[in-house]
Write a structure and sequence with these properties.
12 strands, alpha/beta, single chain, 3-stranded antiparallel sheet, 392 residues, Aspartate Aminotransferase, domain 2
Length: 392
C-alpha cells in the first residue's frame, strides 16, 4: 500500500513520542507524573456542566448542527469580544465556531496556501502550525524565537526571496512553548509587515487569559488591525474555562478569511454538539470569577514549581503567562532534550516535553506543564533532583 508523500513530514510528533515513553515507564512500575501535556486537571465552572447536562434531555440537540444553528453562539462570542477589547464584531461574517483552536491552525493553510507557497512560523512553535502547512502543500519558513530577542521573531531577518513567496504568518502570544508575551508595539510591527507584503496573519490566542502580571493584558491582533484587513484570531475554551476535552473554540477576523475557513470546514466536519456550544455561552455570559481562580491556581503552581527547581540549582525565570515553564537544560543535557525527557520518565515517571519537539530552536529546553497540584509538582522536582544527581 502506498501512502501520500505529505505524511512523511508528519511522522514525528513530540506528544506521540512521549506517550510511548510514558507507557513504557508505567509498564515498568513507575507512577507517572505527567507534566508533558497542557491538559488542565481543573474542572469547568459548575454552571457550564449544568447547562450541558440539561441539553442532553433536549431532543432538538441530537441531530447535526449546521452553520446557522450556531447563530446564538456566534452572537455571544461577538458580544464578549466587543466588551473585552472594544472592537465591534459582526457575528454573521466575522465569527466561526471551531473544534479547538488547533483545528483552526491546521485548516486555515488549506484555505490560504497553494502548493509551494511559504508560511512564516515561529521556531519553536506548536506542532499543528507546521502540520497544517505541510498538509496544504506549503513550505514552512521558520523564524527563530531566541531568548536574547525575548522569543520574538525579527522580521528584518527574513530573506526577501522568502517574503515574496510567503502568503501566511502564524503568531502565538502568550507563546507556547516559551511562555513569552508580546506588546502592542510588536503586533503593530507584525501587522505593518504583513500588510506591506500581502501576507495573511493568523494569531493563535488560546492563552490570552492566562496571564500572571497584574499590569499586563494580552493584546488582541485587532487592537492594531482594527478593520480586520489581513488577520484572523483563534480563541479556545480549553485553558480559560478548563474545557479542553469538549474541543470548543472559535475564530474571529476578516470576513473573507472566515468564509474561506468555513468553506474548508463544511467539506470536512459538522459543528460541535449544540449542548457544548450552550455550555461555552454560559462560560462567557457568567461570572468570570472562575477565570480568576484558574489564574491564581496556576500562578501559585508556577511559583512553587520554579522555586523548587531553583532550590536544586536549576535557575529558571518566572514565566509571565501560559500554564508552562520553559526550562533551559543544564550540562550535560543542553543539546539533547529528547534524551533527557525519555530517560527522566524512564527512571522517575516524571514526564516533560522535549523542546526539540517544537522546532530546532527549542533544542536545549524542555517544557513542563503546570497541570498537577503543588504537592505533586514538589514531588516531581524531588525526583528530578535525584535523576540529575545520578546523571550529572
Amino acid at each position: 500500500m502506498q501512502l501520500a508523500n505529505r505524511l512523511k513530514a508528519l511522522q514525528k510528533n513530540v506528544f506521540a513520542q512521549m506517550d510511548q515513553a510514558k507507557a513504557q515507564s508505567a509498564a515498568s512500575g513507575h507512577k507517572i507524573i505527567d507534566l508533558s501535556l497542557g491538559s488542565l486537571d481543573l474542572s469547568p465552572p459548575k454552571s457550564v456542566i449544568t447547562t450541558i447536562e440539561k441539553s442532553l434531555y433536549d431532543p432538538s440537540n441530537y441531530g447535526y448542527l449546521l452553520y446557522h444553528g450556531t447563530k446564538n453562539f456566534r452572537e455571544t462570542v461577538a458580544h464578549w469580544y466587543t466588551k473585552k477589547f472594544g472592537i465591534p464584531v459582526n457575528p454573521e461574517t466575522e465569527v466561526l465556531q471551531l473544534i479547538g483552536s488547533q483545528e483552526g491552525t491546521a485548516h486555515l493553510p488549506l484555505a490560504i496556501l497553494n502548493p509551494g507557497d511559504y508560511a512564516l512560523l515561529g521556531n519553536p512553535c506548536y506542532p499543528s502550525h507546521p502540520g497544517g502547512v505541510y498538509l496544504a502543500g506549503g513550505k514552512p519558513y521558520y523564524m527563530p524565537l531566541l531568548a536574547e530577542n525575548d522569543f520574538l521573531p525579527i522580521f528584518g531577518d527574513i530573506p526577501n526571496e522568502i517574503i515574496q513567496k510567503a502568503r501566511l504568518m502564524i503568531l502565538n502570544y502568550p507563546h507556547n512553548p516559551t511562555t513569552a508575551v508580546a506588546s502592542l508595539d510588536f503586533f503593530q510591527e507584525a501587522v505593518v509587515f504583513c500588510k506591506e507584503n500581502n501576507i495573511t496573519l493568523i494569531h493563535d490566542f488560546p492563552y490570552g487569559d492566562i496571564v500572571f502580571e497584574e499590569n499586563y493584558i494580552s493584546p488582541s491582533i485587532f487592537q492594531v488591525d482594527t478593520k480586520k484587513d489581513i488577520s484572523i484570531e483563534l480563541f479556545s475554551f480549553s485553558k480559560s474555562y478548563a474545557m479542553g476535552g469538549f474541543r470548543i473554540a472559535y475564530a474571529i477576523g476578516n470576513a473573507t478569511l472566515i468564509q474561506a475557513l468555513k468553506q474548508v470546514k463544511s467539506n470536512i466536519d459538522f459543528n460541535q454538539y449544540k449542548g457544548i456550544l450552550a455550555g461555552a455561552m454560559t462560560a462567557l455570559n457568567g461570572s468570570q470569577e472562575c477565570l480568576k481562580e484558574t489564574v491564581n491556581i496556576l500562578k501559585n503552581r508556577r511559583d512553587v514549581f520554579v522555586k523548587a527547581l531553583n532550590d536544586i540549582g536549576w535557575e529558571i525565570p518566572l514565566p509571565k503567562a501560559t500554564m508552562y515553564v520553559w526550562a533551559k537544560l543544564p550540562p550535560p543535557w543542553e543539546n539533547n532534550s529528547m534524551d533527557f525527557c525519555t530517560k527522566l520518565v524512564a527512571n522517575t515517571g516524571v514526564a516533560a516535553a522535549p523542546g526539540s519537539g517544537f522546532g530546532s530552536s527549542g533544542e536545549g529546553y524542555i517544557r513542563f506543564a503546570l497541570v498537577r497540584d503543588t504537592e505533586i509538582l514538589t514531588e516531581a522536582v524531588e525526583k528530578i533532583a535525584l535523576f540529575m544527581g545520578k546523571n550529572s
